[in-house]
Amino acid sequence: MPDLSGIVKAYDIRGVVGEQLDAALVRDLGSAFALLIKPESDSVVIGHDMRDSSPELAAAFADGVTSQGLDVVSIGLASTDQLYFASGSLNLPGAMFTASHNPAKYNGIKLCRSGAAPVGQDSGLAEIRDTVEQGVPAFAGQRGSVTEQDVLADYAAYLRKLVDLSGSRPLKVVVDAGNGMGGYTVPTVFAGLPLEIVPMYFELDGNFPNHEANPLDPKNIVDLQAKVREEGADAGLAFDGDADRCFVVDERGEPVSPSAITALVAIRELEKEPGGTIIHNLITSKGVPEIVAEHGGKPVRTRVGHSFIKAEMAKTGAIFGGEHSAHYYFRDFWRADTGMLAALHVLAALGEQAGPLSELTAEYSRYAASGEINSTVDDQVARMIAVKDAFGARDGVEIDELDGLTVQLPGGGWFNLRPSNTEPLLRLNVEAADAEAVRALTEDVLAIVRG
């Protein structure tokens, strides 16, 4: 029996093409997914990114789905949030072929139920894995059919309906698509808006010839920063490979933290629904819940990861949620994440006032932060215990273990230390009043972690 433990992750399926993933395996995964969702739907919508392997794998998955008697609606090239739009608007389960920001040799599948509801390890992925490992049962009935449907224009119109830029002043915006799906969606979404777009790396190329399509790594936004300054642009946007995340830089080329974007968008959503609930994960700045509460909202803290965010949004009826990783979730978008919608909110907020983006976002940036720092360790558990013991012995320290280890220090500084689910790493995020306090606390923690 095949062992899929290396590719079935917490939130998706991902692996090296030709070694861990091939068309035969993906066909079985499609069959297993069809068996999972048969009780609720007779069709599946499928999209794929621009990676060389994506069309073949998407077709193999469709073959598996139809082999179980279900129909397939193929939307072809798509961003991940475009697939979520199709799942939501058509009310169908979906499969998106992408490995997001991973290098070219990888591919993967993000799955959802009807209405873009997440499929994670505890909500279907483990069952799919077990079905494939044990052998997918054959279906004796009539095979399903495949139809094609282009939803790009409807997706763009839906987003523009949610954010009104009609009153915006003209803005010049540099967009770095990283040779990913933003190069496909941005021209249609931004068409007709009061925006002058300066495109960077819009050519679809799953080999990522210019830089990795991961804007959270500072080295991957260097070109964007330089171009914003060179063009005298009002803002810069960087999308990851499947264009579901968006990272923002201001008119100086300086990065705007996803926490500041979360607070900005939260306030705009609260203007539409006063008193609404806003979700933030435990690594976002503590400025986020402060600002939400000051504007009459109800901040709710949750674990890191889209399945936890979406589950909490469903439970609380939250109107919006944001993560430190630049994932932004909207109730009006089936509680799914869409960086494109967050980008439209930022541009609308900027266009509604005369000042620069740096001035607008300064009020949402209250503290200094380290960003995520990874450390390779031999024993994650032992290192975590060592940190807990060391800080737990200090006066006035508060510790919780909702997701990893979150340590609140007297004076307002805090840090979170979390183990990676897939690598021998510990991930550290530190926040404090100023850069010097962040540096000191970071060194203090790393001395124990890397001891």
Q: Helix content range of the residues, please?
A: 25-40%
**Cα Rg:** 22 Å
The CATH topology of the largest domain: Alpha-D-Glucose-1,6-Bisphosphate, Chain A, domain 3
What is the CATH class designation of the largest domain? Answer: Alpha Beta
Shape field: globular
Q: What is the overall number of helices? A: 14
Pick out the low-confidence regions. Answer: none
Major pleated sheet: 7 strands, mixed
CATH superfamily caption of the largest domain: Alpha-D-Glucose-1,6-Bisphosphate, subunit A, domain 3
Number of β-strand runs = 23
Give the number of domains: 4
CATH architecture of the largest domain: 3-Layer(aba) Sandwich
Distance between the termini: 41 Å
Averaging pLDDT over every residue, what do you get? 96
Beta-strand content: 15-25%
- Structural class call reads alpha/beta
Describe it.
This protein has 451 residues and is of the alpha/beta class. The protein is 36% helix and 23% strand. Strands 1, 2, 3, 4, 5, 6 and 7 form a seven-stranded mixed sheet that branches. It is globular. The model has no long low-confidence stretch (mean pLDDT 96). Keywords: Isomerase, Magnesium, Metal-binding, Phosphoprotein. Belongs to the phosphohexose mutase family. Pfam families: PGM_PMM_I, PGM_PMM_II, PGM_PMM_III, PGM_PMM_IV. It comes from Amycolatopsis japonica.
